Amino acid sequence: MNPAPKIRTQDLTRALSEKILVHRVSFSVSPGEVLMIVGPSGAGKSSLLRLINRLDEPTQGTVYLDGLDYRQIPPTTLRRRVGMMMQQAYLFPGSVAENIRFGPRQRGIELPDAVIDTLLARVGLPGFRERGVDRLSGGEAQRVALARVLANEPEVLLLDEPTSALDQENKRAVETLLQTVIRDEALTCLWVTHDLAQAARMGDRVALMEAGRILRIMPAHEVTHA
């Protein structure tokens, strides 16, 4: 018997004026599954992720998290449970620790140094707690962004091309890190990429997206032949 979906979208649509960014997208993702979303620029991939995290509001349709319409979940709770990493690591000025403490602090939780050190060790940055974010490389900044997401103890991870701004060496290192974290934390993951080889490497299934629509969802090993 298949498990109940962790995430399910139903007729999810977003339109701005005359432009339809996402059009009646319906799919489900099982607990612990990695769904890669690929397609050309302007296909609506990032817009779809923003809808799932409710950074943008749908014009039509909805998203279900564990079977509950996400409009019934307070946005701050939703964004804790459904974490998101962007293409660029948008870190706040200050130290690495201040960035990681931000999310829990919004819920009245003050992370002790020991927890921050554990999170940083988890992402391969031991000893970085007091480092200023202006002294981080691109790969280090993405690792801090991941630690900041993990500090909220998410159940779902949305990744919007998290390796596309990195060089090849850092790309593979961050890929390996994400793969390990997703597996060890049993996270459900939706990962946007323009890289078909990455989709085949990292995903369980791959959704092909064009002009705001999901054209097809297939096993990851089939994507290079699609």
Please state roughly what percent of the residues sit in beta strands, choosing from under 5%, 5-15%, 15-25%, 25-35%, 35-45% or over 45%: 25-35%
- Report the major sheet: 6 strands, mixed
In CATH, the topology of the domain at 7-90 and 154-225 is named Rossmann fold
Taking all residues together, what is the mean pLDDT?
Answer: 92
CATH architecture of the domain at 7-90 and 154-225: 3-Layer(aba) Sandwich
Query: Percent range for helical residues?
Result: 25-40%
Strand line-up across the major sheet: 6-7-8-3-9-10
Q: What string gives the helices and strands in order?
A: EEEHEEHEHHHEHEHEE
Broad shape: globular
Count of individual helical segments: 7
Q: What do we call the CATH homologous superfamily of the domain at 7-90 and 154-225?
A: P-loop containing nucleotide triphosphate hydrolases
Distance between the termini: 28 Å
Instruction: Name the structural class.
Output: alpha/beta
Low-confidence blocks of residues: none
Q: Compute the gyration radius: what is it?
A: 17 Å
Quantity of strands, as a count: 10
CATH class of the domain at 7-90 and 154-225: Alpha Beta
Structure in words:
- The longest helix is centred in the last third of the chain and has 17 residues, at 168-184.
- It is globular and about 45 Å long.
- It has a domain at 7-90 and 154-225: P-loop containing nucleotide triphosphate hydrolases (Rossmann fold), CATH 3.40.50.300.
- The chain has helices at 45-52, 75-81, 96-106, 113-122, 138-150, 168-184, 196-202, and strands spanning 7-16, 19-29, 34-38, 60-65, 68-69, 82-85, 156-160, 188-193, 205-210, 213-219.
- 32% of the residues lie in helices and 27% in strands.
- With 226 residues, it is α/β, with parallel strands linked by helices.
- Strand 7, helix 6 (168-184) and strand 8 form a beta-alpha-beta unit.
- It contains 7 helices and 10 strands.
- Helix 3 (96-106) packs parallel to helix 5 and helix 5 (138-150) packs parallel to helix 6.
- The strands form 2 sheets. It has a 6-stranded mixed β-sheet, with helices on both faces. A 4-stranded antiparallel β-sheet has the order 2-1-4-5, covered by helices on one side.
